[in-house]
Model the fold of this input.
Amino acid sequence: YALGNLYDFDPEKDAVAAEGLLPIDRWALARLAQVVAKIRKAYDDYEFHVVYHAALEFCAVDLSAVYFDILKDRLYTAGADSPARRSAQTVVHRILMDLLRLLAPIMSFTCDEAY
Done:
């Protein structure tokens, strides 16, 4: 889903500054920060089952059931260069890059291919 909606997004020129993000996008980044902290701590503590469960819960609940569901209209109907669509793409790109880095130690080939 994330890769498919970033086909026309160049983070160097299309990214939206943090203060320009919509509230729901800022919420997603806040949740991402919490998950990143939890997963990094789990790696430090060698609790790999916590890494898996935290990533799965974030992807299934926070992203798939909430955030991505809300984004569908904005990504599919807004103009290609609309600020609302670029705000969403900025956050989706950030989430994707962070998840790829976090999951690379346990899903190295998959993450490398997506990166």
Q: What stands out?
A: The longest helix spans residues 48-77. Residues 43 and 106 are 11 Å apart (CA to CA). Helices lie at 11-14, 23-44, 48-77, 83-103, 108-114.
